[in-house]
Amino acid sequence: xxxxxxxxxxxxxxxxxxxxxxxxxxxxxxxxxxxxxxxxxxxxxxxxxxxxxxxxxxxxxxxxxxxxxxxxxxxxxxxxxxxxxxxxxxxxxxxxxxxxxxxxxxxxxxxxxxxxxxxxxxxxxxxxxxxxxxxxxxxxxxxxxxxxxxxxxxxxxxxxxxxx
Length: 164
Fold this sequence. Notes:
9-stranded antiparallel sheet; mainly beta; globular; 5% helix; Glycoprotein, Type 4 Pilin; 4-stranded antiparallel sheet; CATH 2.40.50.100; 2 domains; single chain
């Protein structure tokens, strides 16, 4: 089965073979993927181990790996064809929320309400599991609301700030 995955605006064609192997943009990759707990995964890719937190939010999938949050969309061939034919772009909404990918403590919010931000800009620094994680703006826009402050404990899925 073929999929088109868009990660932070860059597209990849992924094909899962019948034997469980996969190709990314036509290149065969060695990958082992295991679930550790709900939303927590271990992936061994090209003999390098990574721990991931993966959350699905509607059509969007957020992946937190090594302190970096990646926003992605995965479409199979049929869904991609439908989106192209209707002229739609998946994920184009007027408002975007940055949500907490795991429980933690807000260390810093380096933006203010009314400030313009660019896609990929750090908007919140979250400490979780003794690591500081930079949460990035999912798209260009203006910060409309900040729902947390430094020193505040937050639960998974809490909306931290809103961008429009």
